[in-house]
Design goal:
mainly beta
C-alpha cells in the first residue's frame, strides 16, 4: 500500500530501523509484530517534522533534511553499560544508517520508506534519565563532492579566445534559450 496521507482508516505507524554493526534495531511508535516475523519495539516517543528546502531566491542552496528522534529509555535499554540489553556499550550509533517507514497494517508491504539518513557524528547521540535523542541527517548529501576548478589555460587550450583565458570552464553545456527546441 503506497503512502497516502489522506487515508485515515487506521492510525499511521512510524517504523525506524537502525543498522548497527552486527545488530539491527527496530523501533516503532507502538509495539508491532509484522507478518514477516519482525518485531518493532514501541519506544519512539517523538520525531520532528521532516523538512527540506532550497533556500531563498537570493541565497539558493539545498537545505538537507534532518530529523530528531526521541526514544523511550526509562529502563536504560538503549544506553546502559551494565544492562545486558543495553546498546550503547556494545554498539556505536554515530554515523549509522537509519530508515524511517510509514504505513498501516501488519504486513511489511504496507509500509513505505520515507526517509533514509545517518546519525550525526559528532554530537548526534545524547540521553538523559528517560530518553535517548538521535540527530539524523539525510543521506542525499553524502555523495556531494566539490569539483576541481578547471580553467581555460592558454597552455592547455591554445585556440581559446583571449577574453576566455583563465576563466573557469562551465560544467553545464547547452542553450538556455526558451526558443530552442531541444
Amino acid at each position: 500500500m503506497a503512502y497516502d496521507p489522506n487515508k485515515a482508516e487506521n492510525p499511521w505507524n512510524l517504523l525506524v530501523q537502525i543498522d548497527l554493526t552486527g545488530k539491527t534495531v527496530r523501533w516503532a511508535n507502538k509495539l508491532i509484530n509484522l507478518s514477516d516475523n519482525t518485531q518493532w519495539d514501541g519506544r519512539i516517543k517523538a520525531a520532528t517534522n521532516l523538512k527540506r528546502g532550497i533556500g531563498g531566491l537570493l541565497d539558493p542552496r539545498i537545505i538537507s533534511p534532518q530529523m530528531r528522534l526521541t526514544v523511550d529509555n526509562s529502563d536504560d535499554t538503549a544506553t546502559s553499560t551494565t544492562s545486558p540489553r543495553g546498546l550503547a556499550d556494545a554498539y556505536e550509533f554515530a554515523n549509522r544508517t537509519v530508515t524511517f517507514k510509514i504505513g498501516q497494517g501488519e504486513t511489511a508491504a504496507d509500509y513505505d520508506t520515507v526517509f533514509i539518513g545517518k546519525i550525526n557524528f559528532p554530537g548526534g547521540v545524547s540521553w538523559d534519565d528517560n530518553f535517548l535523542y538521535l540527530e539524523i541527517n539525510d543521506t542525499v548529501g553524502t555523495d556531494e563532492r566539490v569539483l576541481p576548478i578547471n580553467k581555460f589555460f592558454p597552455s592547455t587550450y591554445p585556440n581559446s579566445e583571449t577574453k576566455s583565458q583563465y576563466l573557469p570552464i562551465p560544467y553545464v553545456y547547452g542553450s538556455w534559450l526558451s526558443t530552442d527546441a531541444g
